[in-house]
Amino acid sequence: MRRHLSKFFHCPIGINLSNSFPQLKCDVGSNCAASSTRQALFGGHWNECATRALATASCASVSEDLPKDNSVSDMLVDSFGRLHTYLRISLTERCNLRCQYCMPAEGGEPTVRKDIEDICLELSNLKGLRTLSMTTNGIALTRKLPRLKDCGLTALNISVDTLVPAKFEFMTRRKGHEKVMNSINAAIDLGFNPVKVNCVVMRGFNDDEICDFVELTREKPIDIRFIEFMPFDGNVWNVKKLVPYSEMLDTVMKQFPSLKRVQDHPTDTAKNFTIDGHEGRVSFITSMTEHFCAGCNRLRLLADGNFKVCLFGPSEVSLRDPLRCGAEDHELREIIGAAVKKKKASHAGMFDIAKTANRPMIHIGG
User: Fold this and answer.
1) Which pLDDT tens digit goes with each residue over 173-209?
2) Within 13 A of 365's CA, how many CA atoms are on the CB side?
């Protein structure tokens, strides 16, 4: 895997393995060259299972470190001048939870992969890799975490939408809330800093817990990230369930008046805040009410080998089929470059997104 991915990434990158993806920030960064991905993801024993076997990974890189004359970099610049240095790779569509906002009844969680440690080890040895990150539901993470850290994992996003065990079981259709909280604490004990905790806020379900989540940041290096509820196929999205960023911010400020904004990186997907006296911080991902498309540097490789340039856009292009037909690196670069150049300036509004056919989140990987 390493020797093939390295032909795509000619700059410092980072990787994130996630709920449906581990992340390359493989959370995968994106200066990719084609034949490395071909063998890494579809060659050898990956060949037969590429359609279902990829769980989610994501890579982020720093654009200012890129060579100005890098042809691979040029391939990843869209018509609006955005350089795409972050690639999320989906490793599997299987999951050990059944979250209602993510899927109707079926499931991508990277830790269900028996070879997840080996994948992390290979990715962590990529030349120039800066961050290897994983997004996970935390259910099976605690016992695997020490080995994952030894294999090069450097950052974590752990998803949990409620601090109430009964509500957790209702939402996920599974038990396991204590395991998730243990994973958060285990990550802190192992030195992950910050530990990002992702919370999708839904009116009438967990919007009354916002300040309880903020309290987690008081004495621990936790970055609680409140995410606006987003429409995807199968999650029964309704605007009435959406709690907008402005309302969440108001709620936090009333109880924590020292909340203040920090300087965000241009490619950050979150609006970040600190609170006086708190070790951690609070962030908001505002995809619906205040999109951040102008700084978007993300691309996605899905579990079936399709390439997607926008989380909310229905357009996809297959990389699997050309790879299986023996496409050369330059041909894959042309396919990737053409897809990137067609990326729109921003995604549609939330009501249009809700009416547009797109995959369930479990198939996309975040």
Assistant:
1) 888 999 999 999 999 999 999 999 999 999 999 999 9
2) 43
